[in-house]
Amino acid sequence: MSDSYPTVIVTDEVADALADRRPVVALESTIISHGMPYPDNVAMATEVEGIVRAHGAVPATIAVLGGKPRIGLSPEDLELLGSHADVAKVSVRDLPYVVARGTHGATTVAATMRLAAMVGIKVFVTGGLGGVHRGAQQSFDVSADLNELARTPMAVICAGVKSILDIGLTLETLETLGVPVLVDGSDEFPSFYSRSSGFHAPMRVDGPEEVAAVVRAHMVLGLTGGLVVAHPIPVEDEIPADEIGAVIGQALADMDERGITGKDTTPYLLGRIVELTDGASLTANIALVRANARLGAEVAVSLVS
Ligand code: PSU
Ligand code: MN
User: Fold this and answer.
1) Distance CA 242, CA 145 (A)
2) pLDDT tens-place string over residues 83-106
3) 19 CA distance to ligand 1 centroid (A)?
4) CB 44 less than 6 A from any atom of ligand 1
5) Residue 276 burial by CB count (10 A; 0-12/13-18/19+): exposed, middle or buried?
């Protein structure tokens, strides 16, 4: 473990890569603890780290364990995050609480970005971004992921925004916050399980070099926020929008009936969609994360070359 960073614990592998300016890719942990069932979650997390390595970058999965923010995790840590009953979902506002109490926390996109930025990581891979929830006009439920994108300089590779969210309002908010939204290889913004969403790609790019060029220009301009890099799910893995749309409608109705609100909504909906699709949504989710890991590693490699 490196002691060059006072507030976080960084593995030697990640610290050495950062010191040598070699490519590093951050990975979040809410997707492990609250986004997928055990043991698929641990298998996914392990496989994704392998994909990042196979494409020339060092993976840095991020979480809070025993109150310590950690950058880079062991296989045992991944197992704990995937199977332990008491791992809180930790966004930025929750960080001081889990640290002070010495408990375990799986970090969301927002909290992972904040911790990754503390050590200078520039590229982050995830599945889906949080955003403006449907009905936010009443509930005010807007993910802190958007706030973090407004302030932390980092490229976030994701498969777009799930239609459990209001995709249009999420894109409007990102525009207001000054966050570039790139779409790799498509003229349409993707909706996680599907390549289509009905919304135009705000900025189209083709391939990791073009992504890296925009990220580099963003840094050169000294822009302070992040960038969204939407990477549509591979054609062979996608679930057609109308098919998954019906399932999502059902999951949202079930959520309302149970009175679930706030930070529990995303984990509940993801779990319910897996049940309603008999696991097909989980297969698609894993496939898109794999594809994102590859693109993220390639972007990180391109950024340092
Ligand atoms: N979308 C997914 N899978 C996930 C999440 C979102 O498809 O696991 C997680 C991410 O960690 C994201 C968080 O940062 O949910 C957003 O939660 P909230 O909406 O409560 O901010
Ligand atoms: Mn929320």
Assistant:
1) 27
2) 999 999 999 999 999 999 999 999
3) 30
4) no
5) middle
